C-alpha cells in the first residue's frame, strides 16, 4: 500500500532513469531533508547518501553558507543573463576563479546549466572550430562504449550505453564508440594493464585511420567512467590514448562532470590519471549540487576561431537562458571558497587510502569480482562465479537487489550497467561514516547472496 505522497507521485510524475512499469507498484523513496552526509525520508528514516545525490553533493546536505550565498544573491539580483554582452559580478568572478583552477590552458569559460549541455556545447564548438579553420569535413566525434556524457541529442550520441540509444534513434551519424577501458571485464587472459591500455590505443588508432583522420574532430572521455559502472582506467591508459590523438590532430575533451572538484583527491580527476585534454566539461560538484550549473573551458586557439566567426557571422549563436545563472554562480563561488578554506581536496586525498582499503576488502566477498576506485569513488562488480568472472543472468537483477538491500540497511548506493554498484559519498564524509557506509554495504552484499 503506497503512502498518500507516493500514490500522488505515481499518478503525476515521470521519473528519469526509472522503470516506469515497476515504479507503479513500488512507488518512490520520498526524501524530505538532509544533514551532513545523511538524507531522511518522510518517515524520518536516515540514510547515508553513498552517492552524494547523483555524484554531486560534495559538501553534504546542510551547508548554511551555500544556502546563505543563494539567499543573498536571490535578494540582490535573482536573475539576469549573459546574452548580448550583459553580465553580472558573480559570473565574472566565477569565470576568473575557474580560469585559475583549470589544469588546461584556458582563455575563457562558457557556462551552461548541466553536464549534458556542457558536452553538447563541446560537440558544437568542435564543429564550429573546424568550420572556422576551413576544414568542414573534420566533424566526427569518438566516445567510448559505456561512457556517459548526458542525454541531449549530441551528448546521448556520445554516451555509450544501450539504454540511451535503443528506440531513441541514436547515436546520430558521425558519433563513434571505441572500447571501454575496463581491465577486469575486457582484458585478455594474462594481459597486463599496460598491455591492455596499449591495445585499446591501437584500436583507437585503427578506428581513426579507417574513418580518415581528416574526418575526426574530437575524442571525449571521463577520467573515471561514472554511469557506465564507476570504472577506473588501467595503468597507462590516457598516456597511450593521448599519443594517438596528438598524431592525428584530434581534440581531447575531458568530461569532468563527476570527477571535477575533488572527487579523485585532486581538483580535477584528470590530474590524478595523467590526462592532458584540450578542454574540460564541468558541472555537479561545482555548486555541490545545490543549484544547477555547468560549463566548458575554452582554449586560446578555439577562442580566436570564435572571434573570427563573430566577425564573419555577426554573433556567437549559442547559449541558454539560464547558462551562468547569477544565483548558481554565487553558490559556485561560495563552494570553491569553502573548498579552499577547508582544504577539501587535500582532505579527500587524506581520506582516500582508508576509503579505498575498505572498498578493496569487499573484493573478498563471495559475490564481488572486482572492487576498485580512486579518491572517494569506487565500483563493485557482482559476479555469479569469481574464478570465471561469470555474470548473473541480467534478468535476475542481482546488483539492483543489492542496492535495495543497502537501502534497507540505511545506505543509498547506485546500481549501474552490467551488475555494477557505485559508491561516491559526499567529500566531507568522516572516517567513522566511511566505516558505517562499508559496514552497511557488506551487510547488503551478505543478504544478496
Ligand atoms: N557527464 C558525466 C560524466 C555525467 O556523469 C553526467 C551525469 O551524471 C553528465 C555528463 C550529464 O550531466 P547532467 O545530468 O547534469 O546533464
TrEMBL record:
<keyword id="KW-0808">Transferase</keyword>
<dbReference type="InterPro" id="IPR015421">
    <property type="entry name" value="PyrdxlP-dep_Trfase_major"/>
</dbReference>
<dbReference type="InterPro" id="IPR005814">
    <property type="entry name" value="Aminotrans_3"/>
</dbReference>
<keyword id="KW-0032">Aminotransferase</keyword>
<dbReference type="Pfam" id="PF00202">
    <property type="entry name" value="Aminotran_3"/>
</dbReference>
<dbReference type="InterPro" id="IPR015424">
    <property type="entry name" value="PyrdxlP-dep_Trfase"/>
</dbReference>
<protein>
    <submittedName>
        <fullName>Putrescine--pyruvate aminotransferase</fullName>
    </submittedName>
</protein>
<comment type="similarity">
    <text>Belongs to the class-III pyridoxal-phosphate-dependent aminotransferase family.</text>
</comment>
<dbReference type="InterPro" id="IPR015422">
    <property type="entry name" value="PyrdxlP-dep_Trfase_small"/>
</dbReference>
<keyword id="KW-0663">Pyridoxal phosphate</keyword>
<dbReference type="GO" id="GO:0008483">
    <property type="term" value="F:transaminase activity"/>
</dbReference>
